[in-house]
Write a structure and sequence with these properties.
This protein has three helices and five strands, in the order ββααββαβ. The protein is an alpha+beta fold and about 110 residues long. The N and C termini lie far apart (about 80 Å).
């Protein structure tokens, strides 16, 4: 049996359809905050019993953010999730031209610089 990974359907370039339950990283992109900050807010929500932080539920060892609770918190519907920023490819880019000056060594006599 071939197992295929689930991939969200793309609506437009740079966005995906919004599921009912988001990952903490997806919620961070919706809120335009960093991943670490989003996990801190999720931990704060769980530690405070739901009185502070980003609404989060625990599913086993995973943290998930219900879309309806997030929409309620921000007071607006979530229509799209921005896709993750493209990372620099694993291959190294061509190095930029060096600004170093090299001293040419030759056996020929050099004229003194004036």
């Amino acid at each position: 049996m071939v197992r295929r990974a689930w991939r969200p359907s793309c609506r437009e370039e740079g966005t995906v359809a919004v599921p009912d339950v988001l990952t903490v990283e997806e919620a961070a992109r919706v809120l335009r905050i960093g991943r670490s900050t989003a996990y801190e807010l999720a931990a704060r929500f769980l530690a405070s019993g739901g009185s502070d932080g980003m609404p989060t539920i625990r599913v086993g060892r995973l943290l998930r953010v219900p879309r309806a609770a997030l929409e309620s918190s921000i007071g607006a519907p979530i229509s799209d999730i921005p896709t993750a920023k493209a990372r620099i490819s694993a291959t190294k880019a061509e190095p930029a031209a060096s600004t170093r000056r090299f001293h040419i060594v030759s056996d020929e006599p050099q004229l003194p610089l004036a």
